[in-house]
Amino acid sequence: MTTSRNVIHPRDEIMQTMDRIYRYRMTTTSGGNLSIRDAAGDIWISPARVDKGNLTRRDIIRVRSDGSTDGPHPPSSEFPFHKAIYDARPDVRSVVHAHPVALVAFSICRQTPDTRLFHQAHSVCGKLGFAPYACPGSKQLGANIAASFAEGADSVILENHGVVVAGESLSDAFKRFEAFEFAGKTLIKASALGKVKLLDDQRLDQAARRSVDFDNLDPPPASATETELRRQLCDFVRRGCRQRLLISTEGSFSARVGDDAFLITPTQQDRELLGVDDFVLIDGDRREAGKLASRAAKAHQAIYRRHPHVNAIVFAHPVNATAFSVTESEFDVRTIPESYVFLRDVQRVPYGVQFGDGDQIADYVNEKTPAAILENDGVIVTGRSVLDAFDRLEVLESTAEAVINARSIGSVQAMSDDVIDELCREFDL
Question: What pTM was computed for the model?
Answer without folding.
Answer: 0.93
